[in-house]
């Protein structure tokens, strides 16, 4: 079982709609979770972090965490073409050793 | 906004040669990291560094690799006797502390091509 799993996509969403990205992790003791956005050929850029069960909102982005189900998600409301990128789920394994998922490629269609 | 800077942006080297990738972390950050991403694959942890010594390293980070903070600003990754499979994007990152909630700030990366 992979430590962090994501659907590789591609996920296509029409402009203005909600994009939903999902991630599961295997290590139950993981406590910190991060969503990074990566444009092709560029470095990961932090979008959201979440540590407690429930929802955390920041602008158009909402991260959701369910530790019992070992599940993290990212919702992007009012999707824009500039949101087209690969979204990386990362789990903190301690001492800032992040374990990344494969990433989900998101395409927003105008 | 302060950022992590990496040089060069692209490095081409021949198999068997040594390369040094350079990074300038954010000035008040204390923890430094190297990650790599082989084309089409996930981002992988290589090493973390604090107080002039390695805190943790992955299985990838074998004797071929070394890190150094030669002065107060630079943080380097040396790869000796490069192999074709070392071709990847190498990302430097830094964080202000080691707290599990402290996010990593990544540099723009160095694309290493081994021919």
How would you describe what is shown here?
The complex is a heterodimer of chains A (110) and B (115). With 110 residues, chain A is mostly beta strands. Helix content of chain A is 0%, strand content 55%. Chain A has no helices and 11 strands. In chain A, strands 2, 4, 5, 9, 10 and 11 form a 6-stranded mixed beta sheet that branches. A 5-stranded antiparallel beta sheet of chain A has the order 1-3-8-7-6, with no helix packed on it. In chain A, strand 7 (61-66) and strand 8 form a beta hairpin. Chain A starts with a strand and ends with a strand. In chain A, 37% of the residues are buried. The model of chain A has no long low-confidence stretch (mean pLDDT 93). Chain B is mainly β. Chain B has strands spanning 5-7, 10-13, 19-24, 31-37, 43-50, 53-57, 65-68, 75-79, 88-95, 105-106, 110-114. In chain B, strands 2, 4, 5, 6, 9, 10 and 11 form a 7-stranded mixed beta sheet that branches. In chain B, strand 7 (65-68) and strand 8 form a beta hairpin.
* Class from secondary-structure proportions of chain B: mainly beta
DSSP summary: helix tally of chain B:
0
How would you sum up the major sheet of chain B?
Answer: 7 strands, mixed
Q: In percent, how much strand structure appears in the residues of chain B? A: over 45%
- Write down how many β-strands of chain B occur, each being a DSSP E stretch of 2 or more residues: 11
């Amino acid at each position: 079982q992979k430590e962090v799993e994501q659907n590789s996509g591609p996920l296509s969403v029409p402009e203005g709609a909600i994009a939903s990205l999902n991630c599961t992790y295997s290590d139950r003791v993981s406590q910190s979770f991060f969503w990074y956005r990566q444009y092709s050929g560029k470095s990961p850029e932090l979008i959201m972090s979440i540590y407690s069960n429930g929802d955390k909102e920041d602008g158009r982005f909402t991260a959701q965490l369910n530790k019992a189900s070992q599940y993290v998600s990212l919702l992007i409301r009012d999707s824009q073409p500039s949101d087209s990128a690969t979204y990386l789920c990362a789990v903190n394994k301690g001492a800032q050793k992040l374990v990344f998922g494969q990433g989900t490629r998101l395409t927003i269609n105008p | 906004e302060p950022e992590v800077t990496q040089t060069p942006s692209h490095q081409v080297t021949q198999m068997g040669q040594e390369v040094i990738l350079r990074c300038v972390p954010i000035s008040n950050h204390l923890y430094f990291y190297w990650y790599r991403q082989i084309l089409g694959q996930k981002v992988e942890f290589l090493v973390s560094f604090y107080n002039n010594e390695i805190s943790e390293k992955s299985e990838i980070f074998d004797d071929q690799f070394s890190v150094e903070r030669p002065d107060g600003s630079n943080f380097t990754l040396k790869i000796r006797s490069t192999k074709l499979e070392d071709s990847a994007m190498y990302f430097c990152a830094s964080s202000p502390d080691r707290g599990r909630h402290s996010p990593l700030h990544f540099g723009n990366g160095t694309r290493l091509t081994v021919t």
